[in-house]
Write a structure and sequence with these properties.
Strand content: 25-35%
Largest sheet: 8 strands, antiparallel
Number of helices: 6
CATH class of the largest domain: Mainly Beta
CATH topology of the largest domain: Jelly Rolls
Shape: elongated
CATH superfamily of the largest domain: PITH domain
CATH architecture of the largest domain: Sandwich
Oligomer: single chain
Radius of gyration: 21 Å
Structural class: alpha+beta
Number of domains: 2
Length: 331
Amino acid sequence: MSKTIQIGTKGQFDGFLKSSKFVVADFYADWCGPCKAINPLYEQLSAQFSRAGKVTFVKVDTEKQQEISLKYGVTALPTFIIFRENQVHASCRGADAQKLSEMVKKVAAEVDLGGPGGNVERSHVGSRWLGSDLPRGYSDVTDEVDIQGLDLLNANSVLGGARALFEGDRPSALDGEESTGVESSKNDWVESDTDEQLMLFVPFRATVKVHTLQITSLPRSLSQSQVEPPMRPRTIQLYSNRSHVLGFEEAEDIPPTQKITLETADWDQKTGTAKVDLRFVKFQNVTSLVLFVVDGDGDRDAVRIDRLRIIGETGEKRELGKLEKVGDNGD
């Protein structure tokens, strides 16, 4: 049975934001075809994951509640916004059933498992794996990465491409291949090719504020490998708001937005993940990142990265204009 609440006033909406830890809001209109198409799924999620005082599902008619829609920058329908403790936590623009389900299941898992202070293994819920806990007040915004626009230089073409870095599944290297010494056939990671350097261009579909990077690297040890294993990244340079991937020589002449040096102690022994806190003030209105792996943590020839997660928050919303219907692809 659905537990969705129809919002009648802004005061009612604000009340739920204060009284419920999470509020899942469906911004819709009666004339919107994609809104009607995805509504049965939304009602199903509401029936399954509503938790009194913890997870509340609401529907906001944008025609009748324009003040709420304006405040949160709703310019396309449907739009789903999840609020955590009165702040925007995650959003989904368009009738994207998979993304909506993943967002809701992730929230429900956090509530059911006691919040972000517990075992990091709980993050592997609903095909959304995280290598480390989320900093309080921030969310995983990796879904805002424009996968089609990714560009990766000096990668071993036999292994996974740039898209592998942003897969939602748990890295295959954590599921037994490393301990047995047998290489996974999935190849869901990236290694550098001719030398230890990698250059990755990451565009975003919307402006984001980047607080933290989670970099997962799971190279096999020397004793487990018949060939020289790759290294973990050591020196990384970040460049924000570039229009394209940088060349390696070009990057040497451009001051990075931030330079990072990773030490052995930075890598979590269980998940192989380093949590990199950025100088948040320098990454407030980010439309793209270039990640330049300058060198690795040894003297071998290749560097390996298994996953990359972007942690932060969505950027400033646009002012409310003419609403448009958004189909299954969210574009």
